[in-house]
Amino acid sequence: MKYISIFLQKTYNFFGYFINEVAHPHWTNYFYWLIALSLFCWGLELLFPWRKNQKVVREDFWLDGFYMFVNFFFFSMIGFYGISNVFSELFADFLALFGIKNLIADRVSHLPYWAALLILFILKDLIQWNIHRLLHRVEWLWEFHKVHHSVKEMGFAAHLRYHWMENVVYKTLQYIPLGMLGYGLKDFFIMEIVATAIGHLNHSNIRLPLGYFKYLLNHPQMHLWHHAKNIPAQYGVNFGISLSIWDYLFNTVYYPKEDGEIELGFSGEEDFPKDFLHQETYPFLKK
Ligand SMILES: [Zn+2]
Ligand SMILES: [Zn+2]
C-alpha cells in the first residue's frame, strides 16, 4: 500500500508539475527542451539534408511527432517519476531490514558532481544497450519494438516513435540498478536532456562525420543501419543508444558503408498497422 501511494502521490505531483511547466517556460523545463531540440534538429535537416530528395514533412512525420509527446510526457516523464521514487524507497527499506545504509550511494555522493554524472551517463547507456538487445531477442518484446522499426523514412521525430510498453521495460530495468546507486531525479534531468539530444540527432536526416569519435559516439549514418531491412544478423545490429562503443566492444556492429538510401523496416512489415491506435494494440492482439 505504501508503495502504491508513493507512486500515485508522486505521479499526481508530477502531473501538476507538468501543467506548471507548460505555463511557465524556464531552462529547466522538459517541455520546452523537447520543442527546442526538435526545432533544432528539424532546422539541421532543412539546411543540411543527407537524403536530398526526402520531403521536409516526410512520411509519418505527424505520427512520429504525436508519439514524441505521448512517450516523452505521459509515459516517460510522468510514469517514471512515480516508478523511480518507488524503487529508491523499496531499496532503502530492503537495506533497512538488515539495519544498513546504502553504502554505494554514500560513496557516489562523495564524488565530484561531474564525475558522478559521467558514471551515471556511461552506466545508463550500457544498461540501455542491453535492454535494446533484449527487445530484439525476446520474441514478445520484439512485437512491441516493431513500432520503432516500422518507420520507412528516417527523421528526428522517429527517435521517440515507440510503443509505450518500451517505457515500462526501459525505465523499470534501468532504475533498479541506478536507484540502488543513489542517483536522484535532479541527475536524471541533465542525462535525459543530453540523451534526448543525441537520440534526436541519431535519427535526423543529416550526416555527422565524427572521424575517430565514431568508435565512441553513435551517429545518424550508423543508426540508419540499425533500422535497415536487410542485415546479416538475425537479431539486429548497432544497438547503441548514445554511445557506439558497446557495439564495437561486443561485436554487434554492422557498418559496411555510409549509405543514406538503404531500405528501412523489417521482414513481415506488410502486416504491421499504419496508424497509432492499431500499432498500440498490435502486440496484445497478435497471436
Ligand atoms: Zn531496435
Ligand atoms: Zn532508432
How would you describe the overall organization of this protein?
- The chain contains eleven helices and no strands.
- With 287 residues, it is mostly helical.
- The protein has one domain.
- Helix 2 packs parallel to helix 8, helix 3 packs parallel to helix 7 and helix 5 crosses helix 6.
- The longest helix is centred in the N-terminal third of the chain and has 37 residues.
- The two termini are 35 Å apart.
- The mean pLDDT is 86.
- The structure holds zinc ion (2 copies).
Could you give the topology of this structure?
Elements: H1 2-23, H2 30-47, H3 61-97, H4 103-110, H5 113-137, H6 139-149, H7 164-180, H8 185-203, H9 220-226, H10 245-249, H11 276-285
Helix pairs in contact: 1-3, 2-8, 3-7, 5-6, 5-7, 6-11
The chain binds zinc ion (ZN) (2 copies).
Quick recap:
By secondary structure, the protein is mainly α. The protein has one domain (2-209).
Distinct ligands? zinc ion
Low-confidence stretches: none
Major sheet, described briefly?
none
Q: Approximately what portion of the residues adopt beta-strand conformation?
A: under 5%
Arithmetic mean of pLDDT: 86
End-to-end separation in angstroms reads: 35 Å
Give the tally of structural domains: 1
Shape by Cα distribution: globular
Coarse structural class: mainly alpha
What is the helix/strand order?
HHHHHHHHHHH
Rg over alpha carbons: 19 Å
Quickly count the helices: 11
Number of strands: 0
Helical residue percent? 55-70%
